[in-house]
What we know:
Elements: H1 26-29, H2 32-35, H3 46-77, H4 81-105, H5 110-114, H6 129-138, H7 153-163, H8 168-178, H9 200-211, H10 217-248, H11 260-266, H12 273-281
Amino acid sequence: MATDSKNTDKRDVAEEGIHWDQDLSYSGYLSLDKLLDCQNVRTDSHDEMMFMIIHQASELWMKLCIHEISAAMHEVENDNLGAAFKMLARVSRIQGQLRHSWAVLATMTPSDYLSFRDDLGQSSGFQSFQYREIEYALGNKNAALMEVHRGNSSRYQRLEAVLNAPSFYDLCLQHLAREGFDVPAGYLQRDWSLPYVPCAEVEAAWAQVYASTDTHWQQYELAEKLVDLEHEFQMWRFSHMKTVERIIGYRKGTGGTSGVAFLEKALTLRFFPELWTVRTELE
């Protein structure tokens, strides 16, 4: 039976009061002309567009991670944990979003990638200065890893500043000390550019938190937010490593790293080590 188009239930845009002449449009607010003009692929390979967009989108998500982590660090410095919790939860969800992006990239076969890999030159995700800033802010202080940015003075100086500042975990330990927990003085003031070394006394402080969660509820929630953040970060790293293994096997990375082997080593790193070891000792 034919349907009379005049009687179909269609929304009439004339009744919607749409602003056809905008002072600030959706496109203008998001700078879409600039954003969508950034996909400058170098080959005719069909998959290069997907490869580029995934990495560009990841950098945008990392920019938001830095925004949230920096704000959360400020709140912890001021013992305003409630505000920090929301920001940490958001970072964990962003990490999940980043992890899912690898599933899209994994639709690319080895042959697909090899059709444009040589045109990438020596560019590599290892060179992401935003990723390095996130790692430094969370506590993976390795000065050698920022040498690749020495040629860009503004980026290098930014990473140098984050390297030489207390990490998120350092600020959390300072907060514990202000709350009366026994944190060694050497962990409250030290050379922040050096890698963090796990400490039995710090683990004991966290054990106190877990042993009396009603009394130390905010510190307990802080601990679990940090564990959640690191868990998501490690899942992101793992997904990255498995995606690379799936697509290029054990070839060297375009940036000169050992590829999968280099990514596997990153899985052994811990930002908040005592929050993991304390779990074994809890009674």
